Amino acid sequence: MEKELKVITIDELKKYIRNNEEDKIDEVDIVTSATCGIMSGTAGIFHIPFNEIFKKAEEIYLDDIKGVVGVCPNEYLGKVDAIFYGEVGFLFKDLVKGKIVEAKAVSEGKTYRNEVTIEDLPTAKMIGTRVAFKNYSAITNLSDKEVNTIFHRLPLKKGEASFSGCGMYNPLENMIINDEKDVVGKKALLNGAEAIILGFGTRSSIKKPNLMMSADMKDMDAYYLGGFITSHGIEIYNTIAIPIKVDEHKEALKKLDKDIALPLANIFGREIIDVGNYAEVWENVDLRPKIYPDKCKNCDRCLAEEYCPTFAIKKEGGKIKITEDCFGCGVCNICPYGVFKTKLGSICGIPITCRQSDRKRALKLAKELKKKIESGEFRI
């Protein structure tokens, strides 16, 4: 008879460590770890049908976002293979939600259109070329000049910092990897869909690894992915969960936030100016904003709503609310009347004013992976 695996989530395991109950780790077979954050190296590979026949497409669009026509000619078939990347966060979320999007192809000077949902696309695969970074940096600005950057929703000012990374919950912080072969072919969850790890991602190394993985977008849960507006443009966030075998990675699993370095870099040149740790930015903070509706002045221009990077703040009937699209970034602290308050922490004494990773989503997916393993839906 096959042994029943004992599976716990990464936050449950870290509680063992904090409570000096390390001996309990020996009773565990699998730990489900997870991370969520902006992952720029994300692309979608689609096969898009049209209702008319045309020669090979020269241009392709989904909801006016331009893609790259794929190498397969599909000549005179009225179908297009295409790759989409860049500012696709909100587009991909809409597709996974099942919303209708407009497909547009240009061939020989004529434009062809079709309204499609993800179910109309025979192929809709996501590939993350650079996801789940083990080593992140916090970013600050040492100059007097504000700068638009992918690292902040607002122009980054002197004396502010932003950061990414789920610290002690991040899968790669809890694994011992000596070679790319240690990860190739292993299974994971990417935005709720079963994924295959293809190997190391771009710019990966043994000291600073990240992963490349792929999954079917039709199996994804829209809660786990989406767009995140920065002052430099739109980025995409993803959520990844990976099962870890305790007997292979026991020592790495013992690390806490205080044991994981978080370098602080200057936005200009990215030189490291100091080194803190993830306890500074994740301990005693709020994962979601507290809201004080009685303080709301019902402004004609609500700054929190306007600058929310995920469009999670809504005004309806004169009342303000936060939807499940909230990422916990803390940008809504911009409200001058204190309607929203998010405690964000600091790094090396510099206050965090934008957080680009979301532990709430990460831990939710870790729990989901645990359930899938226990039910036999996800097999190790």
From TrEMBL:
4Fe-4S ferredoxin-type domain mapped to chain residues: 287-318
InterPro entries in UniProt: 4Fe4S_Fe-S-bd, Fe-S_Ferredoxin, HcyBio, Methan_mark_16
Pfam families: HcyBio
Taxonomy, superkingdom: Archaea
Recorded GO MF terms: 4 iron, 4 sulfur cluster binding; metal ion binding
Keyword entries, A-Z: 4Fe-4S, Iron, Iron-sulfur, Metal-binding
Cross-referenced Gene3D superfamilies: 3.30.70.20
Signal peptide stretch: none
Alphabetized PANTHER family for the sequence: 4FE-4S FERREDOXIN-TYPE DOMAIN-CONTAINING PROTEIN, ADENYLYLSULFATE REDUCTASE, BETA SUBUNIT
Name of the protein this chain belongs to: Methanogenesis marker 16 metalloprotein
